Amino acid sequence: MANLKEIRLRITSVKSTQQVTSAMKMVSAAKLRKAQDAILQMRPYAQKLQEILAQVSQNIDPGANKKYAARDQVKRILLIPITSNRGLCGGFNANVVKRTTELVNGVYAEYYSKGALDILAIGKKANDGLRVRGIKVKQSNNEILDTPTFAEVSILAESVMEAYASGTYDKVVIIYNQFRNAAVQILQEEQLLPAVIEKKVVASVETKGYALDYYYEPSVEGIVSVVIPKSLKIQFFKAILDSLASEHGARMTAMHKATDNAGDLIKQLNLTYNKARQAAITNEILEIVGGANALNG
Hints:
single chain, alpha/beta, Pyruvate Kinase, Chain: A, domain 1, five-stranded mixed beta sheet, 6 helices
């Protein structure tokens, strides 16, 4: 059994750790509220934009806009894993890195072996995690996660879109954590390019399931040429906001569990300390009684 001094030092150390994890939990909770508000405000806008694009696309020739359309043959692929710059958030980063590794070594193994698969890592943990596993990362971007704005994300999205339009890549996939709530983050593997447009007929009581007929100015093609790039940028920005909210939620949950575990450990150490202290007192009493009996013969 450890001596009393070692147990006291251990209790002090665990209490200090508990204070740190408790502070990190409160900081993450404050950041989570701001990030949660941002993603919840973004989702209705992104959804409505998709509905407009789907409605307008019903009146256009499918082959009219080929810039972001699907290619006959996929020759090069770009993967974009989104993680965080900091750790201590449970399996948040590990899940993205693990899924990216599975894609590189599994689904897209043939492309990677031929050098036809590139990785754009967003977040320091994605870059470090993939390099440790021996996977080559072509480019990384860590600064965009500090204070992500639509203007900054648009610049990065435009570079990816230009690379696709020029034929550098034939498919772009984003891997990120979608925010559900503070305790639940859903790993998503989402195709950014080619653009996926779901053509649905907007049904209502008035239309009775028939497509509405509109006059478009200046033209349907002109509207689609503007809405598609906007939709792609919003999709990319939404993925980053989802990942940011998921990070704070995962870290808050992890720090909450760490604080509770530290409390349980302190209770166990206090019990061990009291037992050791009682044993020491008992030994001292036995020594005193034994000495007294020896003196009395």
